[in-house]
Amino acid sequence: MYQALYRKYRPSAFSELIGQNHIKQTLLNALKSNKFTHAYMLTGPRGTGKTSIGKLFAKAINCEQLVNGEPCNECNQCKQIMNNSHPDILEIDAASNNGVEQIRDIREQVTYAPSVGKYKVYIIDEVHMLSIGAFNALLKTLEEPPKNVVFILATTDIHKVPVTIISRCQRFDFRRIGQKDLIERMKFVASNEELQIEEEALQLISMLAQGGMRDALSLLDQTVAFASGEITKNDVSEVVGRISIEKIEMCVQHLLTKNTTEILSLVNEVILNGKEPIYVLDDLIGYLRDLVIGKAFGVKEDNITTAIVNEHFNKLLKVADVSQMQHMIRKLTEIKQEMKFSNHAQISLEVGLIQLVSENQENHSLLKKITELENKIKELQYPQPQTTKTSKIESTPQNKINITDSNKTELNAALEEVNTVATKDYILNKVFPSASKKYKNVFLEKLPSVLNELLRINNSDELYAISKRLEKMSVAIASLSCVVIGADEMVIKTLSQEHIYRTLCKLMQKDISQFVEVKFITLDKWKPVAAQMMTALAEKKHA
């Protein structure tokens, strides 16, 4: 009978374990010194090696010819454990044996000495499934265990296990296995099984496995049964019912280039081929997330969860804008929530994508318009100097701009949206004359609570990052109606976003009797302004 790959390649020694080096080294040291405890709690995601390590440890403590902590796999004890026929090694599934009676049976059995081995080992898998009564029945046994009995408890949901149980065990937290380690192990298996498989197919399997070795080998097993000849990434996509990576790349490219027709045509083609709309959305979100992470922190294998790092990915990485992609991820997540409550998931997806692309086009037009208006404002604030002659000749004003009522409305709107940075003239002419230390302290005390409230209202990763950098923000200068906040460029860029900035202004003027104008300034621009103010104060004092 065919044996599944994850069973066939279950590690038979600690040296064969993939990942979990911190746990492997601790247990090997305990075995070498013969100092191990009566109960272990193994917790972590599925398929990361909890049961495998439990069985290896049970084999090692009963091995007759232990070498440097490693079981020999040759003695009678090892062979019986490997064949699942050892009478002193009991593996219990708590999901189906979760009652008080089963635990009471264990309590009675532990009083008897081991039959053939040195230790009687109870491996209780999915221990979080035990009932409260069963946990209480187990508590006394764990607190005062009989000699030559070891309990190994494994769980994927440690928070469901009572703390009274956890505190009586040595706890080991298993981590997800890195993609590089998963790929290396699958290459080893493929070589042994004489399988031909593309590198990109291995990458895709490792990403879909989400850090679980069992999931990776099970998916490889399934793909082998499906494919004929060399296994490709498209074979893997077909097996799991996901979109091919090429289709995802094309969808993301059309999103970033705002090509509505092409993206709708592609999404429709994918869904007609039997792919679920929710999977389409998940893959789009995952790919955009990888682009954001790659742009912000550099491309590292373990950080990439959906995309395959190839030439196309690197091209998109160069042209992609982080803030644009973050907005897309938020919008696509909203679409996903709507789809959960819709009877027409495809329609919800298509409408959402149309809105997203249209929104991006509108934002682009708005930014262009704002730039034009800013240029007009600069021309109004700093007119070109007039050339005059010695004789009294009536000079004709240059660069005269006719401003209609509609222009005024647009200019005011642009000022509200854009002009959040304090200029030197603004500080010296508007804030400095009425500034005082009293007002500065008032706003300085308000700033932490305002940022916390802002984070509660908007709840974005950018604002959360700012709340952790509060010590790098301060009130540079303030009057009753104006406050200038000193911060770095990243903070200013985030807080200047229209919806965030408006909320910030409202919060800063809360409990204050009049309107408060909030502006920002970077440290390098503040220093010369501060120096000029000090000079002005000194001149005033000596006058």
UniProtKB/TrEMBL annotation:
Keyword Electron transport: no
Pfam families, sorted: DNA_pol3_delta2, DNA_pol3_gamma3, DNAX_ATPase_lid
Catalytic activity: DNA(n) + a 2'-deoxyribonucleoside 5'-triphosphate = DNA(n+1) + diphosphate
Xref: CDD domains: AAA (cd00009), HLD_clamp_pol_III_gamma_tau (cd18137)
GO BP terms in the entry: DNA-templated DNA replication
EC number: 2.7.7.7
SUPFAM superfamilies, alphabetized: P-loop containing nucleoside triphosphate hydrolases (SSF52540), post-AAA+ oligomerization domain-like (SSF48019)
GO molecular function: ATP binding; DNA binding; DNA-directed DNA polymerase activity; metal ion binding
Domain of life: Bacteria
GO cellular component terms attached to this protein's record: DNA polymerase III complex
Keyword Isomerase attached: no
Membrane spanning stretches: none
Enzyme class: transferase
UniProt keyword list: ATP-binding, DNA replication, DNA-directed DNA polymerase, Metal-binding, Nucleotide-binding, Nucleotidyltransferase, Transferase, Zinc
NCBIfam families: dnaX_nterm, PRK05563.1
Protein family membership: Belongs to the DnaX/STICHEL family.
Protein's recorded name: DNA-directed DNA polymerase
UniProt lineage: Bacteria, Bacillati, Bacillota, Bacilli, Bacillales
